[in-house]
From TrEMBL:
Name of the protein in question: Chromate transporter
Organism listed in the record: Pseudaquabacterium inlustre
Entry's localization field: Cell membrane
Pfam families: Chromate_transp
Membrane keyword on record: yes
Keyword terms of this UniProt record: Cell membrane, Membrane, Transmembrane, Transmembrane helix
Family that this chain belongs to: Belongs to the chromate ion transporter (CHR) (TC 2.A.51) family.
Keyword Cell membrane: yes
Chain ranges passing through the membrane: 12-34, 81-104, 116-136, 143-161, 167-186
Topology with respect to the bilayer: Multi-pass membrane protein
Length: 195
């Protein structure tokens, strides 16, 4: 199934605005919000583009969503786009964090506050799980095939959750071989015909 053509942000200011708005929606993590805003709502990225960029953002050092914002912004408008996307992602939440941290210093031992923080942790887990399921939709078009892609995902989860391996080891043991196998499959695939 072919993915619909993607739109392009009109300018770096639009990137700043979009990343500011999505950062203000991302309580407990912004992966689900970023996907919804960039892929579903604004149609600035396709499912496969988002999955590829998110995979790269995951293995690079630093915060995943910041890596994604930098890569996407750079591709759209060079250094201006990268700076606009990253600034949009960080400015408003940083100001909110300073305000909330200032408030929490005086009330963090109160039982209702501790209960609210615990409840937010559960919501954050659900947001991450939902985003993971949305990303899984793109596995059907992966060069390793659906079973191969799910096998790689299962091996990574087993390494992280069951064996409790450090992320770097899982990337080396599962990620690098799967990248190599994907590259081999792509080399063997016939070239795509021009539309």
């Amino acid at each position: 199934m072919d993915e619909p053509a993607c739109l392009r942000p009109p300018n770096a200011r639009a990137l700043f605005t979009a990343f500011t708005l999505l950062s203000l929606q991302g309580f407990g993590g912004v992966l689900g919000v970023v996907h919804r805003e960039l892929v579903e709502r604004r149609r600035w990225m396709s499912e496969s583009e988002f999955a590829g960029d998110w995979a790269m953002a995951q293995v690079l050092p630093g915060p995943n969503v910041c890596n994604l914002a930098l890569m996407y912004g750079w591709r759209q408008f060079g250094w201006r786009g990268a700076l606009a996307a990253l600034a949009g992602l960080l400015c408003a939440p940083a100001l909110l964090l300073i305000a909330v941290a200032t408030l929490l210093v005086s009330v963090d031992q109160l039982a209702p506050v501790r209960g609210a923080i615990g409840g937010m942790a559960a919501v954050a887990s659900g947001i991450v799980a939902g985003a993971g399921l949305r990303l899984a939709r793109g596995l059907g078009t992966h060069p390793l095939g659906l079973c191969g892609a799910w096998g790689v995902a299962a091996a990574a989860l087993a390494g992280l959750l069951a064996a409790r391996l450090p992320l770097l080891w899982v990337v080396a043991a599962v990620g690098l071989p799967s990248c190599w196998l994907t590259w081999l499959r792509l080399r063997r695939a016939p070239p795509a015909s021009a539309p």
